[in-house]
What does this fold into?
Amino acid sequence: MTHYVVECNPKFGPKAFETMKNYAAGKSIPTKIINPDRDYTPQNAKALLATAY
It folds into this structure.
């Protein structure tokens, strides 16, 4: 059995409000904004644990 965990980026909220604020101020908004998620497997989990959200 393979174990696999995907961590959804919890920083979406602040980024959404920052984008709304910039839009309301008339600033240019990128067409695409990406909040990267991370994936953990038994092979990489220990190495990436320190950078988890």
